[in-house]
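ugh ok so i messed up the first submission bc i forgot one of the chains. this is the corrected input, ALL of the components this time, i swear. 424 residues overall. if the numbers dont match what u have on ur side tell me asap before i send this to the collaborators (the ones from the other lab, u know who)
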Amino acid sequence: MAGTFPQAWEEVALVTISQFASGGDLTMQAAAMTETIDIGEPDYPGESVNNLAGGRIWKQSPQEDGEITLEIYPTNASSGDGENNLGLFQQFVGGTQDTTEPIASFTTGYPGVQVSRNRFRVAIMWTDDAAQTSAEAATTTADAVALRFVAMGCRITSHKSAFTDGILKTTVTFKFPAMNKAGAVKMSKWESTNDGDGAQAIPALPDYDDDDSWS
Amino acid sequence: MAGTYPEAWEEVALVAITKLAGTAYLFGAITETVDIGEPDYPGESIPNLAGGRIWKQSPQEDGEITLEIYPLHLDTTASVGLFQEFNGGTWDTSVPMATDTSWGVGIERTRDRFMVVVMWTDDDTINTAAEVLDPTAATGTNKVALRFYAKECRITSHKSAFTDGILKTTVTFKFPAMNSAGDTKTHGWESANDVGTTPLSALTYSAAL
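and heres the new structure output, hopefully the right one now
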């Protein structure tokens, strides 16, 4: 038997962010520090070209990059695995992440050396399953319904903080390519289930140890 | 006898979306707003040495239809979202559903095309997507209708926001003004002042223009 989807997805969502690491991943739950989510899937641009018959030839352009923007209320710079809802300061800055108090973001530069930025997988899940605690985890409850968006290969391209309303709020933008380099894998996807256990469950996301693989 | 048009078209509309050679589905129940951006007819005047102006028209531009919807899940037969319609590739039909992430390397990725139909009417015998496309079976008496349609629409943008405490997605369909041959407009408006007697024409989208 299938569950019943609500009239709309409202109020709450699970937000899970994993940092890519070849030997495993660093995962945090971010829903409790998040107020808003904007999911800008990569556009499919195109336009018509006028021909001399007066007709139009459709010219599609490569799918653009996507963006996920979160408005969060961060509290400190600690960033270890399982340190949830604290902030994304070190994740944005990059470099070696400090784990010893007092915490400081990385300030050392390497002149002339390419420093690749951190990559993340961002998962957002809406569900009526009270047992669900992570957007990356599989759904497990019969008749529960869920909708999930996931994007991998996300770079944090913008991290803007404002203390203008009497509260520290940071707007964080994750930018991701539409496809992997090989052109074989889409880097974002939607999933849904109307019966969240057994064969119909939304599967768990594996450790983010392969930056462009869903498995 | 003809019906009477309302003072304005308000509150509700029928929204039917059909994939090329596919089945039409109604999306009014998840839609809040509809914006129909018909293709502009651009042009400008060129001042001449007499102090006059020579009008120079440019080719009609592309059009856009934008819907604000409240999607729920991925089932393409349930009229509750446009996730797979936007993503393209192979549509998943088994729960759990997922958008297609496997793509052929170096293979042209022709995007799906859709026909979008928006209809305003006071004829309550029209209540299925098929009837929106072909109201010839409508039995209302003295009922009126206004309909816009656009074929060859590509979904160029699908942006979701969870910023007002509810998941809302803004979906943009973009369509050329004309077909490639230059002999057929992709879109049009229609109206009838007695739908049951002089129904609107039947719209089909079994083949590309």
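quick check: Chain B touches chain A through 52 residues (CB under 8 Å). that seems consistent at least. The mean pLDDT of chain B is 94.
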